[in-house]
Each structure stands twice: as C-alpha cells, then as structure tokens.
Amino acid sequence: LQIEAEDRAIGAFLTLSGDQAMSEARALDEKLAGREPGTSTMPLLGLPMAIKDNICTAGIPTTAGSKVLQGYVPSYDATAVARLRAAGAVLVGKTNLDEFGMGSTTESSGYHVTRNPRDLSRSPGGSSGGSAAAVASGMVLAALGTDTGGSIRQPASWTGTVGLKPTYGRVSRHGLLAYGSSTDVIGPLTGTVMDSARLLSALAGADPLHDATTSLAPAAEDYVSAVKEAETRGERPLAGTRIGLIRETLQTRVEDGVSTVVQDAVARLEGLGAEIMEVSIPYLDAHCASYYVNVLSEASANLARYDGVRYGLRPRDAGSAKTVMLGSRGEGFGEEVKQRILLGTFSLSAGYADAYYLKSQQLRSVLSEAFKSAFETADVLISPTAPTVAYPLGKAAGSKVDMYADDLFTVPASLAGLPAISLPVGKAPSSSASSDFLPVGLQIIGQRFAEASILQVARILE
Ligand code: GLN
Questions:
Q1: How many angstroms separate the Cα of 259 from the Cα of each of 172, 247, 341?
Q2: Domains of the chain by start residue, with CATH
Q3: Is 147 in the pocket of ligand 1 (CB under 6 A)?
Q4: What integer is the mean pLDDT of 361-373?
Q5: Interface predicted TM-score (ipTM) of this complex, two decimals
Q6: pLDDT tens for residues 17-48?
Q7: Which residues belong to any copy of the Amidase domain (predicted)?
Q8: In angstroms, what is the span from residue 240 Cα to ligand 1's centroid?
Q9: Cα–Cα nearest to 87, from 35, 37, 24
C-alpha cells in the first residue's frame, strides 16, 4: 500500500485497513455495476477517508491511542462512521491521537508521535493530530476528528487544513469513546470548505435511539447547497454580514505573527463587504481553567469503565478482581491520563466539589451569557484559532501548563456548545526558528446550529 510507505515519515496512522478498504470499494463497484457513471446517489462515493482512533469501527481495532484498549476490536460502527459508509466513503485506516483525546500535540499517544507534514520537526497539533496530518499530507482527502476543547480546530490551524466542530448535538456521539461528554463532538478535517460541507451533510442529524443529546430540531441542512449559494454571490459577497472580532483574543497570549495574519484576514473580510465590529468575551483565562476542571471531572467518571474486565489489556497473572483492575489501569493508562483522572476525581470529591466543579459550572453560564450578547450585535464571531503556530516536537513536555493555557481561544465554543470552523488564512514565522513560515488558522464561531453561516463565510474567505 502506498500510504504505508508515505506514512513512515509522518506516523499519522495507528491502523491501516487496506484489505478491508479494497473489498469495500469492490463491493461498491459491484453494487453500482451497470449504472451510468455519475448517476450514483451516494454523495461521498469512493472517497478515501481516515477515522480518528477514538471512534468505533466494526472489525477494525479501536484504541483511543491507549494501551488500555490494545487489541479491542469493536463489533459495531459509530453512527458517524455508519453514515459515512452509507454515503459511499471508503475507510483506509485509523489515526493517531493523544490518549483518549487528552492533549494538544498528539505526543501523549500511547503508541507513537505524529509529525506535522508542513515541517517534520513539529507537532501536527492535537488531539486529532493523526487525522490532520493524514489530510495535510494528501494521504486521504478527508478525516474524522473529535473536538472536546479544540482538538479538531487547533490541529487544522497547525497543519493548514479546514477543521469543523459542529454544534453539540448536531452529530451523534454513539460509538465515540467518551472524554468529556458535555463537550465531545465529532467533525470533519478536510482540505477545502466544500469538502467540509459535504461531510457534514452526511454526518449531521438526530440519532434518538443511540444518542439522546442529538437534536431533532432544527433539522440538519443541506450544507453543500448553502456553500454553493455563497460561491455564486456577486461583487461584495459578505455585504450585510456582521462579523464580531473577539477583542480579548488579540490581547492575550497571541504571537505577533499570528496576530498579523488574522488582522490581514479581517481586512479581507471587510473588502468582501462584511461589517466588522469588536465584541467582548471576557475572562478567557478563567474559562480555560474552568474547562479543564469541567472536562477532567467528566473524564474521571468516563474512564472508570476501563477495568480490564470487559475489553482491552489484562495483566497475565492477575489473581483477584482487584488486581485485574489495578494491573490493567496501572499498565494501560499513560502518565497524562493518570494525572487527569486524579485531578478530575479531586475536583469532584466531597469538600472540594463546590470550590472547583460547581464554580466551573457557574462560569459556564457566565460564558453563555457573554456569547448571547455578542450575537446580539454580530452574526458570526472570529478570532485566531490558536495563539501560536505549530510547536516543535518536545516543547509541550517542557511547559505543560502553557500548553493547557494555549487552548483559550477554542474552549469557549466548546463550553457553550457552539459550531466553529478553523480555516487556513496565511502563514506566520515561528518565534523559535525565524526562517520557516507555518500555517495560521482563523476561527469562525456561529450561533447554535448555524453551521451553514460559518461554512459560507469560510468559503467566501477561502
Ligand atoms: N487540548 C484540550 C485537552 O487536552 C482539548 C482536547 C480535545 O478537544 N480533545 O483537553
């Protein structure tokens, strides 16, 4: 397989499922034999795709990047995967990630690191770094990622790809191995905005039997037609669109080079007819801290199921039930995951829950109010996706708290459940080695279920 050779330098994949892919493709050929070319009703017919390895695929190993799930082969497809297959997509493999989605560089995978195809000495971002790298290198045309606090958008920004986090409840989470259930969302990483719309059209929709948090109303839209409409607009395609630049994002942590690229993008939006204004989402730092309290609390409960009894790793000479559990969790989970389980358990424990967990929930409603008033004056909001360009490999290990703090532009849309897309808008020099220029993403945030609007703005700016 050609991908196998190409991936040696990058390490985007954990599993390549070439044989299954070939037989799926052949089955599609047989099914469609005799038809006129171009008359299939399958919108993604033959599209080679990769799936992040925390999403279940029937008959193909699914590890969530964790040793604790080594050898686990799901008996069912996640709803998102089933929908892509039904639309004709062909799955070529499963991509690397930070264990259970916990990280921003893909370096805390239990298996290997993934390199950024734009600069092999750098990280592709995370936690969907394998998916982003697979798309950025051209090994696949599209991939599924998951985003709990930025894990689709930030890797898209660092690799120069398009990453869309849909509204919470727009895409079913059935078959997604949970990290933070109240903000986990599945979405596409692609090379273009139109491909993002194509995938979302296949993915979106209610799944009442499997994920009761998916929304019945408003119904999913035809995102492809929405993007096509944007393509046919005349001279000033954004006339009448009010775009709110989140003021605080150009004041906190952001690198100069990133800020310059984003300001250029703002000028282009204005030239396209948009009305630009500044809006305020105060306390970004506090929301980032509160995100970590919230998500780790949820993770500590979600990860309790990996006990070595039902699936995955089990120590060989385990005697009692207790030693099975201690052994499989002790050997199976990596350092980052263990630390996060401890932190989450602590913030939920008696005597501390009011000071930490409850406080984070209160901040979450403060944030929703801030978004509500921002959307009274603006139709969509914009910011840099991330304050920096791609980190050099190894940097995150030396400054973990900085890595957490660098999530501050992506976590607000997660906590509020809003749709957000990251679109490449230029390149900035890296602060460490001034000679190379690296991709910078612009984040566009919409109101709940307004995926069509953010895709349209993104397409026009693309
Ligand atoms: N970097 C963030 C975290 O570690 C976001 C991860 C994600 O969205 N899965 O929690």
A1: 35, 12, 35
A2: 2-293+354-461 (3.90.1300.10)
A3: yes
A4: 97
A5: 0.98
A6: 989 999 999 998 898 888 887 777 899 999 99
A7: 1-455
A8: 35
A9: 24
